[in-house]
Design brief:
The protein is an alpha+beta fold. It has a domain of 53 residues: Head domain of nucleotide exchange factor GrpE (Nucleotide Exchange Factor Grpe, Chain A, domain 2), CATH 2.30.22. The chain is built from 3 helices and 6 strands. The longest helix is centred in the middle third of the chain and has 64 residues.
Length: 176
């Protein structure tokens, strides 16, 4: 109902309010009384609908804000767990020593990083020696091999899964 219609309706209600009171003694089937009653009921229902719509909008906004807050909280927890890994990478970049010592240090940082991520639900997708599965593997090429047909012969890039969702499929070579 537009503002103009509301004002027009309110004016009608005021004009007929005197006749509505006098009409109470009349027959309840009087069309003018019935029209006034229906308009009042319509106005009340419209008002309830507007309040319900506003409540729903507020609920939607509140849920969006809460979802964002939950997401931020989860990211903060993950970042807190990754801070020691960053510290160790900084130490490794400043370290002096032989190549073997540096490689051993990088290996320890890799294990630490993978440990943090695996606690969050990250896992490696196994590939070599298994039958090719398009849900988990991305075949780059087929090669002649002594392996049975459709077996993954070589993994070119590891694939990862987060809980049950594939983040990245393994890039593989498959036996012909």
């Amino acid at each position: 109902m537009s503002e103009y219609e509301k004002k027009e309706y309110e004016a009608e209600v005021e004009d007929t309010s005197g006749s509505a009171h006098s009409a109470q003694g009349q027959d309840a089937t009087d069309p003018a009384v019935e029209l006034i009653r229906l308009r009042e009921e319509n106005s009340q229902l419209f008002s309830r609908l507007q309040r319900l719509h506003a409540d729903f909008d507020n609920y939607r906004k509140r849920m969006r804000t809460e979802r964002q807050e939950w997401s931020n909280q989860a990211l903060c927890e993950l970042i807190k767990e990754l801070l020691p890994v960053i510290d160790n990478l900084e130490r490794a970049s400043q370290a002096e020593g032989t190549t073997e010592v540096l490689l051993a240090g990088v290996g320890l940082v890799y294990k630490q990083l993978y440990s943090v991520l695996s606690k969050q639900g990250l896992s490696v997708i196994e590939a070599c020696g298994l039958e090719f599965d398009p849900n988990y593997h991305h075949a780059i090429m087929q090669v002649e091999s002594g392996e049975p047909e459709n077996t993954v012969v070589e993994e070119l890039q590891k694939g990862y899964r987060f809980n049950d969702r594939v983040l990245r499929a393994s890039m593989v070579k498959v036996a012909k």
